[in-house]
Amino acid sequence: MYKIPLAEYIDKGVRWMEATFGNGMDAFSESFGKFIRGFEHILQIIPWWVLILIFVVITFKVKGWKLSLGTVLGLYLIYNLQLWSAFLSSLVLVIISAVICILIGIPLGIASGRNNTFHKIISPILDLMQTLPSFVYLIPALLFFGIGKVPAVFATVIFAMPPAIRLTDLGIRQVPTDLMEVGQAFGSTPRQLLWKIQLPVALPTVMSGINQTIMLSLSMVVIASMIGAGGLGGGVLEAISQLKIGMGFEYGIAVVILAIILDRITQSIGSSLRTENK
Amino acid sequence: MAEKIIVSELIKIFGSHPQNALKMLKDGKNKDEILKETGYTVGVNNVSFNINDGEIFVIMGLSGSGKSTILRCLNRLIEPSAGEIIVDGTNIMELKDKELRNFRQSKTAMVFQQFALLPHRTVLENTVYGLEVQGVSKSQREAKALQNLEVVGLKGYEKQYPSQLSGGMKQRVGLARALTNDADILLMDEAFSALDPLIREEMQDELLTLQEKVRKTIVFITHDLNEALKLGDRIAFLKDGALVQIGTPEEIVKNPANDYIAKFVKGVDKSKILTAEDVMKKPQPHMLLRDGPNVALRIMKENGISSVYVVDKQRHLKGIVTVDAALEARKAGVVSLSEIELEQGPTVRENTPVLDTIAIIAESKYPIAVVSEAGRLVGIIVRGAVLSALAPDHSDDAEDEHGSLPLSDTEIPTDHSNNQEGI
Question: B72 to chain A: nearest residue by CA?
């Protein structure tokens, strides 16, 4: 039976891309890598207790003293376990990936929410991004950008962007018909309709998309340690490969603490928008 | 009165390519046939009507009758499939995007059934919305909004969010928002249907008071006949997307165009619709002021009554004379009733609702006199007439007893048959 040479085609395609854009991607990889390291460096300079204080202020503002207390204890534990540097390195990757996801994902989500054709085109692509095993595109990322943090961000963005797009799309589509009619009946332009009605009403849903994106970024940043992302994931990988169970737990708990803090912060921003809306 | 909105042969067929269905409709096929053959729903079926400047025009019908669709065609929130809509001489079907926006901004404002307040905006921010999209300056639009919030009785609530308000208050914001737009035409889509009955009545009254002041052209959609009759200067009755009857509330109640409307009207509280004029009978007998007590007594004896109304030569009502008063006058040797002081019975005007006459008649020993603006006696109302007018179906016996009542010749056919079976 004839086998469609899909694998061969893709190999060819990837090699072609490498040959054609290789130089450009190398240059991009280098400067973007510098940017990531610079960002990380700044955080490393700031004394650990100042960073904890910043987290306390943020958590207190969005939620309350209970979350702040938990944050202090959690972050201090990470510092005490001497995982501070790895923690910062992971944090930087999560922040950069999430910001890229949001900057690209939300406009795409808006377009998809307002345009049915675009929605139909982008839906299967999103399915692909979310379900394709992430290892499958770790390798091409490696080929394009070399080993290090840049391919990690690349892979993370692909993996974590779909919820930002999907939930923005959903939020826009869920704006009640009569609110849309208000906009139209009072003679709003399409732009006014978007900024004054659709986006504000969709905002809580958009926020849960952002929350999802951040959580997925974190989980991918850990996996991306396999291509040299470093950080907490790097520690986990090392512990697994050397069967250091206790060390694995220490790194694992640090990941969980970071996840909980990021989740609670974004969730309470989202829910405060929701209650204001009701 | 000037015609503000002229709708002619409006058709709306739901679906992306209605040409075929449109043709079938023009060939005289009905709604069900078209649905069966093409799968397209006829929402509005060839409806034509005019709306006068400054009137409250009610479009009445059950759900699915196409009333909301027609309303949305008036500002093209729903694109009509065929027909013409002319507002102030402009055919709005021909407007392009930008012209349509201008038209919506300047000519129409809409009030929604579920209030449709923007949840992320305060009361004030909601109210200014119309002016905000027009680019009116912040201070100007807020001044205007505050003024209208005061009109609807929401002064002091500007900073609240919609979630903090009750249903009635939310709809007041909806109304203030529409008023702030300062358009000539208010489109009200079941504006009070979501409110509980007491609040609904209150809002209806306030709308009527407000309308006295602002004199907008109001197109009001409702499925509640009592609401339609209360608010409407004229009512258009819809069924299955087609117009069944247009008329004043009185015309609809008195002369329902067909059984469908008659069935609706049957349940209506007629005491609010019918006026004294509808239930009064000719002021017979009555007597002239210059005549004496003997004439009065003779009239009473002939007619088997115990009192009679007295008028002057121009038929101005002067009072009432009873048997006792007439006997006393005769004893005193009075020649003309003008010499004595006459008793005054209860009076109402021709346009007084029957509802208001009930209390009067219940307390009075005399029939009520109906007088014109100039004070002329135009009719009298006896108890039986009021009761039979309000009865859901009045029998022929009642007619005989009270002479010809206006209502009797508007007998609903179905009611008649019921009567005969009953007897």
Answer: A185
> Closest Cα of chain B to A120: distance in Å?
19
* Residue B181 near chain A (CB below 8 Å): yes
Tell whether A190 lies on the interface with B, counting CB pairs under 8 A.
no
What pLDDT digit, counting tens, does each position of B266-284 carry?
Answer: 777 777 777 888 788 887 7
Annotated domain spans of chain A: 21-277
CA distances from A233 to A144, A258, B138, B202, B422 (A): 22, 12, 53, 66, 90
For residues B138 and B245, membership in a common domain is answered with: yes
Mutation target to probe the A interface, by most A beta carbons within 10 A, among B74, B95, B101 is: B101
Segment A14-60, tens digit of pLDDT: 888 888 887 888 888 888 989 999 999 999 899 989 999 999 999 99
Q: Please check whether residues B159 and B41 belong to one and the same domain.
A: yes
The strand order across the sheet containing B307-311 reads: B286-288, B307-311, B317-322
**What is the extent of the structural domain holding B79?**
3-270
Give the fold, CATH level 3, of A21-277.
Answer: MetI-like fold (1.10.3720)
Extract the runs of DSSP E, i.e. beta strands, from B360-414.
368-371, 377-381
Beta bridge mates, B87: B5, B90
Peptide linkage before B285 cis (omega within 30 of 0): yes
> Quick one: B221 and B302 in the same domain?
no
Question: Is the overall model pTM greater than 0.80, yes or no?
Answer: no
**ipTM confidence:** 0.78
Please give the Cα distance from B59 to B70 (Å, whole number). Answer: 9
Q: How many domains does chain B have?
A: 2
Distance of alpha carbon A233 from alpha carbon A251, whole angstroms: 8
Closest partner CB to B161 (pick from A176, A181, A276) = A276
Judged by CB atoms closer than 8 Å, whether chains meet at A186 and B119 is answered as no
Q: Which residues of B touch A197 (CB under 8 A)?
A: 118
Is B120 close to A187, i.e. CB distance below 8 A?
no
Mutation target vs A (from B97, B99, B127, B129; most A CBs, 10 A cutoff): B129
CA distance A176 to chain B (A): 8
